[in-house]
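Q: Please design a sequence for this.
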């Protein structure tokens, strides 16, 4: 048996077949090696059906559990719950991934709904389990832990469940809150169900017909919320001004309706928080993930104290785009012309491991393995009925899966670095943790992806072949810091102020919302920025205000990612190992504690300051290169 094995070891990997990305081809026309292999998740159609039946049997056993006051019954129930959850996770992921590459396929949709139904049923059972665990008093739980050694494995899970035990109301109170749509206890929270207020907001947006505008050639076009980005970023100022005015003017006409949906959402959040006796909605929502509200307030204060680089960025736009005043629409057109060369996937497979070499040999080895399409992690190229964008997902015990729509552009290389940040986080956490503490909190998720993007950006700047290429990279970096750290924190402060106003009994009228938003925009963008007559109604354009204190984590994610990447570049191995330790930590510790282990304390301003300094350096370098170009 040795010979074939040796042969396999020494045979060079077969060269990858050529493929030109084209979103209009059928899936079957993309060479097989570029499609992911889902068999490690679920072996096939028959196995999927058997898995669903098995999950239903496990749920029945879980429903028939004994009283959890018995230590043995508690250990049995938790064991059964996690076994069922893992199986159900594999089924939902499998069904979801298949749907992502066949969005309009009725069988794929059906499979996905059946898997989601199994998850919903399990979550309902988990709610009952949680209530019983919360009902145990501390002494009873301590006795159970002492008497039943199998319970030791579930300590972190039990501790996390019971962390907010004092917030649980008596059964009648809980019943009423759940009727009111309380979501402060949802176990799986990433795709939380939208509230009726959010649905009303989305419906209003969908019903709103935007005006027609004239494009660059003077031709009339129908503006929509989906093509708005393209016209708002037009190099032709007349076009982008018309587009921005058309969108904001339309929102202005319905501003009272939009104010009513947002006020409804904010008032609901305040009511749910008060029902559980939280002093503010901020504290209630952050407590779900165990985040200290000081982190939120620190982010807002630190960004406010570091607005000078953003003002400088606005001034640079004014100079480069040759404007008298920078208006809302002038924030969107590209600052420099496109100069990057195409990056075919074979090149990405070479560049990415080089760029991420500072993360060490072990990281590099797993990265190379995942990037090699023959290993089945990636679904690389676009085709008909494939989900747009990119994502990474995984389930315990199986390697992660990465969805791409790779089109041989520099942007795609950044996206690849981003998604492999998530994928390797999953891989490292799953490899180091038992199932109970594998995975990671949403709050830290965007750190692993931004560390990779930052390292890639440094590498590309070092190896760029021309000033024009370097300028484009710098311009993208500056824009990313503006949109992810500055803009999201503006939103975060607006969200905070709106809730504080509602908590103080101030009605959230369109006038109040517009005035508050306009004040923030003026402070953020500085003296060279001019607010147009309808610009302050932009708050009505942002769906994220319905996400309930989620937006700030984009800003903390990028600032922490930048701070960590800079530590690794400066200090090498010790900083790298501390960071990898955070990734391997999974859910074994609270997210802020894991982050402190990687050298970042988000209750202090340093991470935001590092990002602000990076923006300063980026602008200085851009100005130098532009001067050299005579610009
Ligand atoms: Zn991401």
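A: Design:
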């Amino acid at each position: 048996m040795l010979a074939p094995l040796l042969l396999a070891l020494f045979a060079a990997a077969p060269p990858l077949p050529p493929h030109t990305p084209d979103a209009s081809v059928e899936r079957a026309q993309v060479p097989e090696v570029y499609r992911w292999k889902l068999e490690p998740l679920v072996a096939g159609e028959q196995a999927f059906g058997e898995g669903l039946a098995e999950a239903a049997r496990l749920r029945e056993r879980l429903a028939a559990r004994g009283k959890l006051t018995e230590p043995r019954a508690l250990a049995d129930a938790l064991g059964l719950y996690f076994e069922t959850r893992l199986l159900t996770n594999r089924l939902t992921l499998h069904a979801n991934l298949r749907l992502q590459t066949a969005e309009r396929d009725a069988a794929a949709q059906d499979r996905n709904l059946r898997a989601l139904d199994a998850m919903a049923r399990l979550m309902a059972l988990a709610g009952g389990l949680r209530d019983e665990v919360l009902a145990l008093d501390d002494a009873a739980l301590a006795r159970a832990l002492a008497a039943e050694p199998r319970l030791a494995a579930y300590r972190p899970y039990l501790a996390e469940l019971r962390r907010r035990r004092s917030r649980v109301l008596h059964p009648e109170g809980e019943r009423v809150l759940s009727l009111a749509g309380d979501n402060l206890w949802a176990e799986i929270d990433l795709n939380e169900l939208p509230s009726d207020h959010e649905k009303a907001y989305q419906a209003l947006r969908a019903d709103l017909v935007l005006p027609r505008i004239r494009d660059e050639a003077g031709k009339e076009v129908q503006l929509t919320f989906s093509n708005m980005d393209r016209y708002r970023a037009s190099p032709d100022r007349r076009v982008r001004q018309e587009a921005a005015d058309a969108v904001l003017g339309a929102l202005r006409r319905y501003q009272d309706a939009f104010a009513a949906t947002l006020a409804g959402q904010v008032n609901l959040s305040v009511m749910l928080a008060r029902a559980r006796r939280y002093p503010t909605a901020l504290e209630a929502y952050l407590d779900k993930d165990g985040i200290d509200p000081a982190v939120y307030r620190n982010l807002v204060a630190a960004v406010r104290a570091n607005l000078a680089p953003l003002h400088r960025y606005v001034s640079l736009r004014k100079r480069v785009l040759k404007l008298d005043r920078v208006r809302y629409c002038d924030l969107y057109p590209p600052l420099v012309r496109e100069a990057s060369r195409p990056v075919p996937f074979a090149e990405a497979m070479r560049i990415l491991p080089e760029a991420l070499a500072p993360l060490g040999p072990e990281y590099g080895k797993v990265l190379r393995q995942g990037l090699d399409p023959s290993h089945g992690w990636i679904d690389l190229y676009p085709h008909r009925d494939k989900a747009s964008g990119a994502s990474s997902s995984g389930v315990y015990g199986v390697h992660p899966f990465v969805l791409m729509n790779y089109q041989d552009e520099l942007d795609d290389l950044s996206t690849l670095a981003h998604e492999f940040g998530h994928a390797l986080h999953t891989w490292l956490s799953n490899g180091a943790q038992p199932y109970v503490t594998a995975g990671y909190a949403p709050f830290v998720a965007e750190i692993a992806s931004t560390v990779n993007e930052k390292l890639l950006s440094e590498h590309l700047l070092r190896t760029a072949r021309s000033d024009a290429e370097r300028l484009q990279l710098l311009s993208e970096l500056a824009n990313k810091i503006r949109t992810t750290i500055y803009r999201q924190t503006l939103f975060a402060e607006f969200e905070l102020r709106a809730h504080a106003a509602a908590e103080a009994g101030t009605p959230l009228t369109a006038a109040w919302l517009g005035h508050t938003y306009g004040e923030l925009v003026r402070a953020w963008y500085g003296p060279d920025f001019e607010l147009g007559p309808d610009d302050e109604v932009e708050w009505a354009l942002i769906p994220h205000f319905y996400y309930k204190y989620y937006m700030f984590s984009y800003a903390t994610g990028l600032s922490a990612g930048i701070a960590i990447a800079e530590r690794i570049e400066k200090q090498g191995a010790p900083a790298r190992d501390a960071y990898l330790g955070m990734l391997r930590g999974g859910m074994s510790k609270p997210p802020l504690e894991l982050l402190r282990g990687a050298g970042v304390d988000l209750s202090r301003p340093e991470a935001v300051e590092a990002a602000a300094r990076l923006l300063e350096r980026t602008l200085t370098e851009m100005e130098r290169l532009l001067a050299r170009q005579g610009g």
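Q: Thanks. Anything notable?
A: Residues 215 and 499 are 40 Å apart (CA to CA). Residues 27-166 form a domain with the Butyryl-CoA Dehydrogenase, subunit A; domain 3 fold (CATH 1.20.140.70).
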